[in-house]
Design goal:
Mean pLDDT: 86
Helix content: 25-40%
Shape: globular
Number of helices: 10
Order of helices and strands: EEEEEEEHEHHHHHHHHHE
């Protein structure tokens, strides 16, 4: 299935922003529903009703590990910035360790990220909200992220998730236990969980192509066997690997598969 009409996304390079991975937006042109797949990132989001003032609602998400189904009507809109995995701590601070699958809306979102308050009274214009939201990560109280965490994330994506925690720890020069603590304190997820998400998206892309046996998909995606693949796809996607709806798949973004509307649809 092609990207839904009205959805747009732009990758942000590390040279442009050390915190933002992508900026995206979606304005529904008709009523419908979609499934949002988890990608382990945190998002800053503004939800609004097109052409209706006073409808801008800020939303902050923790790193997602479960799918969400959403319904929407024509004129419902979202703009969002997807943070780089290791920059979850810049959004959630010391609460990143308990932010998994959490969502903060309205006043709670502003309490977590005060800079969002300046955007609530803006006109519900996609372009203006998008531009304003892009400035927010630059004013967050950044905490320094250990370079070994960023290198670990990079290695996980370079290998397609086909790497063990012990191997990753050796590559960055720490013990597996210490790497786990570093990763959890920045990303908000365990290393194994993040590896599982990357494998999951790789498997979905392979399965969606068709003509490939599930046993081969499991091998190529780094799973021990087909049963291991099935458990992961059910855990992260709520579906069977043999029945992957084509509308779940979007082009890969910086190693991250997305659901029908990126992260927007949860909210």
């Amino acid at each position: 299935m092609p990207i839904p009409r009205g959805y747009s996304e732009a990758i942000v390079t590390p040279q442009q922003s050390r915190s933002v991975e992508a900026v995206w937006s979606y304005v529904a042109t008709s009523s419908g529903r979609g499934v949002i797949l988890p990608d382990g990132r945190c998002d800053l989001i503004l939800r609004f009703r097109e052409d209706q003032r006073g409808t801008v609602q800020p939303v902050v998400t923790g790193p997602a590990t479960q799918p969400y189904e959403i319904r929407y009507a024509a004129g419902d809109g979202w703009v969002g910035v997807r943070m780089r995995p290791e920059r979850g701590i810049a959004v959630w601070g010391n609460a990143i360790g308990t932010a998994k699958d959490q969502v903060r809306r309205g006043a709670e979102a502003v309490t977590l990220v005060p800079a969002l308050a300046e955007l609530v009274d803006m006109a519900p214009c996609e372009a203006e909200l998008r531009a304003g939201l892009l400035d927010v990560p630059d004013v967050l109280a950044h905490q320094d992220v250990d370079a070994r965490v960023a290198r670990t994330v990079q290695q996980i994506h370079l290998t397609g998730g086909r790497v063990s925690v012990v191997e990753l720890a050796a590559r960055v020069g720490v013990t597996a236990r210490h790497l786990g603590r570093l990763f959890q304190s920045s990303v908000g997820l365990g290393v194994k969980t993040y590896i599982g998400l990357v494998r999951f998206h790789r498997a979905l892309r392979l399965a969606a192509r068709g003509g490939v046996a599930l046993s081969e998909v499991a091998f190529e995606a780094g799973f021990a066997d087909q049963a291991h693949l099935s458990r992961a796809v059910r855990r992260f996607g709520g579906i069977s690997p043999g029945r992957v709806p084509p509308e779940l798949i979007l082009p890969d973004v910086a190693g991250s598969g997305q659901g029908l509307f990126g992260a927007a649809g949860q909210f």
